[in-house]
């Protein structure tokens, strides 16, 4: 056995052994002058060598009789070695074995062909890989009350090992090491791996696998196949794995190769993604990671854009520009030139920057608009609607649109775009005229947005044709600006529109509707009769003669009766009620309303030959006329159904009237007497008299 310094011959040692050396371990403090330069050699026994006087080595046997020490690792104060029976862990401060982890997996595997592997990630964690099993152990301090322990347990070591994770794999372990919270394993497949075979990879190749230990099982995080020369001739015993925990590096050692493995950095990952044209993943990684040093977001983004453009994926490239180019005007202008070169500006147009502070040169926007004007009219309209007018020279674009319309005057899409452009330079009258020509409902938004209510009366007929409800809402809301007289005159060619307008004015602005009641009642008579009578009864702003003529010409008897009654021609009203409407109740109400003897006589004369009408008269006349006037004029032998009940009711009403009169006379007499007494008392009361002269008293 030889201990040789890398840079100096000082503290080098050469030992001659009787048996083969299976393993060796240096004291972690070996580099310190006062450490004793300790090291341990494992043969069929475990021997500690340390520096004694005069530079001699002092051997101390730590363990023997348990078989050859096939693996050995020393970390801090703990030494672990593996023999054919299991793994022992010794506290080097007390020279006591604190734990024996028996070999309980893969007992049928010969140890010389499937050797054990040990690794200390830190001074309190031990990883054991042997055959096809892995154990992760933790050093625990034994905490107990010595006074309560039995005498046989007092000599227990102060530390012990606890198995935290233990699982079996489907491959052989050729080495173990730590990687953060995971376990790195150098693996050798037990049998043919079909997943590798399908990829054309020989499953006998060794693999570096990263595992996440779980209770009783594990989860594989990654797997990398190693390119080892002559791997077909090697067995698990020919591979070794050495890990440098702090450097996060691993050395795979085999007869012909030494391979260095380390976790991929973010730069490595990005480089691999770029080599495999996975630009989207590379872009996400460089954006999310702070550990990238050789690449930046813009660099990867431009590579991604180049790739998309070369493949003709212009839509995706245009969407990506917003993310990649950000607020860099120069890059945006470069992108516009690039898309223009392949005639794809229409794809880029929805993604151009519009926010304040990121505006491009107006010529850039004009270039895009002119390209859309030639290639995509619908896209041109959409962009004109979306882009603020301050981004480009609107007059220049208007002239270009007019030139195009000169060749195709019926292009409705370009007309709509032209209207929007006119609005951008405050030529709203032209925009309004175009929208009306197109019959486009955006005209109402234009009116509201730019306060064009003064123009509504001029174009009210077209607006009503386009959307009658929206037009009426505007006219009612801004009736002070939109004069009803002008609106009615403009709508005179369409009676239905006049009716709808005047009806809305009457319902919502009654005072404004008064000058139009004559016209409105004619429209109601023709189009909506149920509204005519309420107008006739409540309004005083129409000509009665004209209204009567309208009703009579259209045979509207009910309305004519009310008009005749209002004009004072109650006799004609009574005639129409009796002859046309044949409504005795209405006739009685009319007579009661006027309380005219002549009107009552005409009603009685009309009813004398009609028994049912006579009964209704007797039941409803009350005290308005003397019932005798009716009874005496009833023809003899005329049978009147319900006459007896009617007469009884008349008598009852008459008796009630007498009682009321008697009661009223009594009340008047009492009130008169009381008032007279009060007046007499007031007259008899003394009156105070005041003099302005003072009387002198004489003694």
From TrEMBL:
This is Vacuolar protein sorting-associated protein 41. CHCR repeats lie at residues 472-616. Pfam families: Beta-prop_Vps41 (PF23411), TPR_Vps41 (PF23556). Its main location: other. Residues 2-262 form the Vps41 beta-propeller domain. Keywords: Lysosome, Protein transport, Transport. GO terms for biological process: cellular response to starvation; endosomal vesicle fusion; macroautophagy; protein targeting to vacuole. It is found in: Lysosome. It comes from Halocaridina rubra. The gene is VPS41_2. SMART domains: CLH. It comes from the Eukaryota. One of its GO terms (cellular component) is HOPS complex.
């Amino acid at each position: 056995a030889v201990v040789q310094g890398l840079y100096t011959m000082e503290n080098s040692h050469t030992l001659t052994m009787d048996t083969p050396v299976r393993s060796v371990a240096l004291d972690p403090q070996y580099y310190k002058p006062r450490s004793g330069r300790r090291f341990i050699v494992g043969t069929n026994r475990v021997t500690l060598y340390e520096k004694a006087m005069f530079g001699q080595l002092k051997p101390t046997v730590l363990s023997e009789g348990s078989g050859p020490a096939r693996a050995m690792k020393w970390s801090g104060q703990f030494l672990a070695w593996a023999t054919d029976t299991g793994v022992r862990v010794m506290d080097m401060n007390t020279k006591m074995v604190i734990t024996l982890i028996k070999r309980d997996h893969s007992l049928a595997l010969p140890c010389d062909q499937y050797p054990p592997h040990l690794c200390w990630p830190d001074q309190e964690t031990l990883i054991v890989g042997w055959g096809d099993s892995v154990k992760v152990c933790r050093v625990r301090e034994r905490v107990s009350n010595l006074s309560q322990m039995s005498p046989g347990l007092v000599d227990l070591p102060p530390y012990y090992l606890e198995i935290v994770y233990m699982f079996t794999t489907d491959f052989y372990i050729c080495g173990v090491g730590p990687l953060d919270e995971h376990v790195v394993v150098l693996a050798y497949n037990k049998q043919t791996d079909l997943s590798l075979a399908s990829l054309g990879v020989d499953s006998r190749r060794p693999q570096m696998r990263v595992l996440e230990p779980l209770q009783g099982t594990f989860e594989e995080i990654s797997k990398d196949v190693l390119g080892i020369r002559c791997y077909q001739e090697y067995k698990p015993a020919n591979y070794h794995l050495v890990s440098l925990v702090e450097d996060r590096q691993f050395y795979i050692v085999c007869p012909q190769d030494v391979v260095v493995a380390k976790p991929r950095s973010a730069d490595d990952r990005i480089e691999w993604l770029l080599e495999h044209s996975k630009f989207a993943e590379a872009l996400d990684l460089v954006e999310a990671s702070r550990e990238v040093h050789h690449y930046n977001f813009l660099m990867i983004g431009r590579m991604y854009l180049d790739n998309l453009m070369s493949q003709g994926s212009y839509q995706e490239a245009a969407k990506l520009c917003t993310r990649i180019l950000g607020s860099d005007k120069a890059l945006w202008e470069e992108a516009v030139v690039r898309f223009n070169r392949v005639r794809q500006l229409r794809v880029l147009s929805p993604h151009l920057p519009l926010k304040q502070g990121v505006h491009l040169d107006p010529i850039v926007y004009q270039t895009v608009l002119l390209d859309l004007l030639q290639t995509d009219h619908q896209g041109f309209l959409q962009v004109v609607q979306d882009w603020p007018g301050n981004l480009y020279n609107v007059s220049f674009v208007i002239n270009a649109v007019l030139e195009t319309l000169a060749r195709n005057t019926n292009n409705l899409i370009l007309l709509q775009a032209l209207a929007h452009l006119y609005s951008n330079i405050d030529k709203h009258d032209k925009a309004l005229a175009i929208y009306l020509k197109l019959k486009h409902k955006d005209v109402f938004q234009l009116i509201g947005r730019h306060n064009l209510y003064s123009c509504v009366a001029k174009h009210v007929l077209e607006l009503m044709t386009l959307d009658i409800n929206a037009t009426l809402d505007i006219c009612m809301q801004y009736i002070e600006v939109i004069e009803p007289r002008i609106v009615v005159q403009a709508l005179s060619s369409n009676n239905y529109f006049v009716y709808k307008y005047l009806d809305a004015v009457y319902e919502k602005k009654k005072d404004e509707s008064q000058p139009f009641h004559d016209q409105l009642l004619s429209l109601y008579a023709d189009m909506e009769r149920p509204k005519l009578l309420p107008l006739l009864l409540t309004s005083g702003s129409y000509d009665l003669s004209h209204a009567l003529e309208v009703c009579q010409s259209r045979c509207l008897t009910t309305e004519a009766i009310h008009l005749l009654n209002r004009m004072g021609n109650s006799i004609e009203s009574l005639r129409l009620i009796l002859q046309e409407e044949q409504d005795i109740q209405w006739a009685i109400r009319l007579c009661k309303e006027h309380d005219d003897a002549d009107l009552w006589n005409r009603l009685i004369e009309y009813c004398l030959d009609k028994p049912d009408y006579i009964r209704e008269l007797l039941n409803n006349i009350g005290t308005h006329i003397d019932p005798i006037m009716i009874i005496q004029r009833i023809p003899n032998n005329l049978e009147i159904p319900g006459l007896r009940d009617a007469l009884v009711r008349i008598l009852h009403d008459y008796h009630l009237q007498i009682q009321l009169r008697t009661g009223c006379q009594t009340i008047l007499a009492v009130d008169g007497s009381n008032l007279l007494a009060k007046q007499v008392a007031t007259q008899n009361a003394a009156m105070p008299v005041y003099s302005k002269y003072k009387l002198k008293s004489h003694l």
